[in-house]
Amino acid sequence: MKPHDKDVITALVRRDEINTRVHLENGQVLLVNNITYGYDDDDDYAHITANISPETGDPIEFFYSNEIVKIIDPEDERILFERN
């Protein structure tokens, strides 16, 4: 994991199998239950695939770590990550 992705990836991995709201810079809000991530050869930021295992019933989502502006626990509205 690249150092600039550590906070985002750690926040999402810790929430494995727990509903988490991810706000993207384009205004989209995703409900995420689990993730896998990785880097292609020329990627500066991690590509994240969400809701793939086990079957969550939520749509599979794909985005990059640098697109995330906020991660929220929907149960208590606690901010788990916010981009500066």
Describe the structure.
With 84 residues, the chain is mainly beta. The protein has a single domain, classed as SH3 type barrels (Roll). Helices cover 11% and strands 38% of the residues. The chain contains 1 helix and 7 strands, in the order αβββββββ. The model has no long low-confidence stretch (mean pLDDT 93).
Biggest β-sheet description: 4 strands, antiparallel
CATH topology: SH3 type barrels
- Uncertain residue segments: none
Which CATH-level-2 architecture? Roll
Fraction in helix: 10-25%
How far apart the termini lie comes to 20 Å
Mean pLDDT: 93
Number of domains as seen in the coordinates: 1
The arrangement of helices and strands along the chain is HEEEEEEE
Structure, briefly:
Helices cover 11% and strands 38% of the residues. By secondary structure, it is mainly beta.
Describe the secondary structure blueprint for this structure.
Blueprint: H1 6-14, E1 20-24, E2 29-32, E3 35-38, E4 47-50, E5 61-64, E6 68-73, E7 78-82
Antiparallel strand pairs: 1-2, 1-6, 3-4, 4-5, 6-7
Which structural traits does this protein have?
SH3 type barrels, 84 residues, three-stranded antiparallel sheet, mainly beta, four-stranded antiparallel sheet
